[in-house]
């Protein structure tokens, strides 16, 4: 729609600090009088740090997985600096690497910095590299863990099971916004863990949430804008409604020609978000993704927009039918980066009643939360002012609309 960051919430570790002794070699040992605490480590979307297939061989992948109470998710050493251990082996950075993206694995404990971890402000910092444990790429079950530069994003936030502030399914929930008086306060109050504003920088709407930058259209494919996007986040949204003359207005071929510039950022990439027809054979997105395959390019997830003109009880089902059809066609994770109930068919927008909006939000967010391939969703829009007063979430005085109150409750039950 227009042009403008979520970010993630930092979690506080409610862990007891165990007394540690420093040995002559500089290694940390636990006094025999103290028990070495074991517990699951919970991260984004309430999922656990997990040893793949409960393997015990050196090099076994450590991943994000649905918490299940098995020993593959039971880690000793939580609550102090030192090693984190499962099955008697240590959480280890492959090859002692300091590089972003270096994988994390299970390995024989050897006293190196690759196996030394520091708990600090809800982050697990590998002291050998100075980088953080990260479920880079989102909250999908099976995401392999790695280290990356510490940035406080939600995928770098960890807590012991039982902490009252463990990240939960609300990690999916975000908002689309632009600068307005409540700004960051509205983002915090509604419980959004991420946001975007159609731009490459969240400086206009600073907030305690993960900002996701966007390259809105062809004129923003510049060295300066791409560098700003890299500084502003780790995931990059592609072109905004390139199928509409009033928006990015790009041919499929032009978008494909520019796409390597976005891909060269090394960021996780969301597809261009078409205004409609993402599931249509031969449609704009279908042809774009065919071109991506033919040219050997990369798209990591599909970004969708959806606006319903039927304000009745089936509105949420209509949304989910569309989301399901797109996933079935492309088999990629889904982000719904704009959605709402607005009827554009008669020229001037027609809006639902506040109660119709509340009913839709309750049903739609429950369905989105429960759908594994939906990674994130964002309501359009946070501000409820001017032409957006009928469907926005927060008024300029900072109070929530009926829709805002319903969206605030989403993902918290």
UniProtKB/TrEMBL annotation:
Pfam families from the UniProt entry: Glyco_hydro_cc, Ricin_B_lectin
Record key words, sorted: Signal
GO biological process, one term: fungal-type cell wall polysaccharide metabolic process
Coiled-coil ranges from the UniProt annotation: none
SMART domains noted in UniProt: RICIN (SM00458)
Domain Ricin B lectin: start-end pairs: 38-161
Signal peptide start and end residues: 1-24
Alphabetical list of InterPro entries matching this protein: ASL1, Asl1_glyco_hydro_catalytic, GH, Ricin_B-like_lectins, Ricin_B_lectin, TAT_signal
Top-level taxon: Bacteria
Tagged with keyword Ribosomal protein: no
Name assigned to this protein: RNA polymerase subunit sigma-24
